[in-house]
Amino acid sequence: MHPVYVHPIAPSSDQLHQYVQFGIDLYKGNPYYVPPLIFDDVNTLSPDKNPAFEVCDAQSFMAFRNGEPVGTITAIINRAANERFGKKTLRFGWLEFIDDEEVVDALFEAAAAWGRERGMEEMTGPMGFSDLDYEGMLIEGFEELGTMATIYNWPYYPKHMERMGFVKEADWIEFRMTVPDAVPEKHQRISDIIARKYGLSVLKYTSKKKIKEEYGRAIFDLVNEAYADLFGFVPLTDKQIEYYIEMYLGMLRLDDVTLIVDSDKKLIALGISMPSMSKALQKSKGKLFPFGWWHLLRAINGHSDVVDLLLVAVKPEYQSKGVNAMIFADLIPRYIANGYKFAESNVELEGNDNVQKQWEYFERRQHRRRRAYTKHL
Question: Would you say the pTM of this structure is higher than 0.90?
Answer without folding.
Answer: yes
